[in-house]
Write a structure and sequence with these properties.
Elements (H helix, E strand, L loop, with lengths): L6 E14 L5 H20 L3 E10 L2 E14 L1
Antiparallel strand pairs: 1-3, 2-3
Length: 75
């Protein structure tokens, strides 16, 4: 039986979340983190998985950058 060559395509995307870091911003911070969780879950249902997460302090905010990937095998 002849084996066909396979190709793996990788789709990469990022999610960026800006979260307020001030002590008086707890409500907004929780809302932003909940929205990030929903975004990650939705991408997970589409076959993506998180490969890196970077947290960047940015003044009154913290920027969270998630890099996600999804593989598709083609023959």
């Amino acid at each position: 039986m002849r084996q066909l060559p396979m190709r793996v395509l990788v789709d990469v995307t990022t999610l960026t979340t800006n979260v307020p870091s001030g002590d008086d911003e707890a409500g907004r911070r929780m809302a932003k983190l909940a929205a990030r969780d929903e975004d990650l879950r939705a991408h997970g249902h589409s076959g993506y998985r998180v490969c890196t997460t970077v947290v960047i302090p940015n003044g009154d905010y913290v920027m969270i950058v998630d890099t996600l990937e999804r593989e598709e095998i083609q023959q």
